Amino acid sequence: MDRSRVADGRDDAAWFDVLFEEHAAALHRYFVRRLPDGGTRADAAEDLAAEVLATAWRRRDDVPRGAELPWLYRAAGYVLANHRRKARAVPLAVVPEVPDDVDPAALAVADDRVRRTLALLTPRDRQVLLLVAWDGLGRDDLAAVLGISRGGADAALSRARARLREAWEDARPDAASGES
C-alpha cells in the first residue's frame, strides 16, 4: 500500500483500513473499561466502537492525520455520553458454576476502594486520569482529546493526580472511622 496516498487522503478506503487496524482494539478497550459490568458489556463496547469508527468514516476529512487516536477518543467520549443517557437496564451477570481461586473478600475490598476513590473525583478528573492510566495517552494526545493546550493538559493531569492522592486517603476503609 502506498502510505503517501493514505496520508494525504487520496485513498479513503486504504486510510480507513489503516485506521481500523491500528485503533479498533484501543477503542474497544476504552468502552469495556467504562461500561458497567454485565453480560452485554463486550457487545455494547463492540457496538460503540463501531459507531465511533463509522463516525470517523463519515467525517474522514475532519480527522487530523497523525492524530487519529486522540480524535477517536474524543468522539468516543461523546458516544459514551449518549449511550449513558439512554439509561438502559443492565441485565444480571451469569454466576459461574465453578468458583475461581481469587479470595472474593480481598478482591471486593480492593475494587471497592478504587470505586470509592474514583467516585470522589470530578468527572473531568476521572476522564483525565483514565485516559492516561487506562488508555495510555501521552500528554500531547491528552491535550487533543480534551481540546486544550499541552500546558493545560499538563496542569489538568497534575491537579487530577493531586486530587486522586487526597481521594485515595479519604477512601481508606479506616478513614470513615477516624482511625489511622
UniProtKB/TrEMBL annotation:
Keywords per UniProt: DNA-binding, Sigma factor, Transcription, Transcription regulation
Gene3D superfamilies for this protein: 1.10.1740.10, Winged helix-like DNA-binding domain superfamily/Winged helix DNA-binding domain
RNA polymerase sigma-70 region domain span: 19-88
Any single GO BP term: DNA-templated transcription initiation
Pfam families on file: Sigma70_r2, Sigma70_r4_2
Signal peptide (from-to): none
InterPro entries assigned to the protein according to its UniProt record, in alphabetical order: RNA_pol_sigma-70-like (IPR039425), RNA_pol_sigma-70_dom (IPR014284), RNA_pol_sigma70_r2 (IPR007627), RNA_pol_sigma70_r4_t2 (IPR013249), RNA_pol_sigma_r2 (IPR013325), RNA_pol_sigma_r3/r4-like (IPR013324), WH-like_DNA-bd_sf (IPR036388)
Domain RNA polymerase sigma factor 70 region 4 type per the UniProt entry, residue ranges: 113-164
GO molecular function, one term: DNA binding
SUPFAM superfamilies, alphabetized: Sigma2 domain of RNA polymerase sigma factors (SSF88946), Sigma3 and sigma4 domains of RNA polymerase sigma factors (SSF88659)
Family: Belongs to the sigma-70 factor family. ECF subfamily.
Name of the molecule in the record: RNA polymerase sigma factor
Species annotation: Xylanimonas allomyrinae
Lineage of origin: Bacteria, Bacillati, Actinomycetota, Actinomycetes, Micrococcales
